Amino acid sequence: MTGPPLARRLWLQRSARLAWGGSWLLLAGCQSWTAPPLELPLTRSGRLAIQVEGDSSRSFSASFDLYGNPDLGALSLTSPLGNVIGRAEWNPRGARLVTPEGRRHYRSVDELSDDLLGEQVPLLALFDWMEGRPSSISPGPVVALADSSGFRQSGWDVDNRRASDGRISARRHRPEPPVTLRLVLDPR
Known about the structure:
Layout: H1 3-32, E1 42-52, E2 58-68, E3 73-78, E4 84-91, E5 94-99, E6 102-106, H2 109-117, H3 126-129, E7 142-144, E8 150-153, E9 156-159, E10 167-172, E11 179-185
Antiparallel strand pairs: 1-2, 1-11, 2-3, 3-4, 4-5, 5-6, 7-8, 8-9, 9-10, 10-11
């Protein structure tokens, strides 16, 4: 008569240990990642398009809402048909991508953009580029383009001639393949 109750008691003890250990792992995971608060202020919204040239040319377009700032923020993307593509979130500890398929964590926003968009796009530089100015957080020198159409920063030629109309374009020539990014911003 002691067989089944003992087995059940051992099973309950193991289950309790697993639950206790799992809760500590969950708490440790929560401490390593803190999502940006949902009440971050909306910085800008609009539409973006990315075109990749070369042997495997491809394109991507979406509506976007950009929240917060380069240190703590989020970028929500919606397909032209209104389907949620995903939400990129970042803080000083890293970045994560939340999609209908689940969550993925990254060391940087650049890694996240490569996974989400298929190319590394300087998402954090967009905060400044959308205002028609070079980014204060992008590494490397800023060079004015010869035709006065904008500036070169971090390998991207940023055309800001129509920034006052809410239109920004940027083109990366190196590394291959060439990539063009276009933004059309909603009026403020």
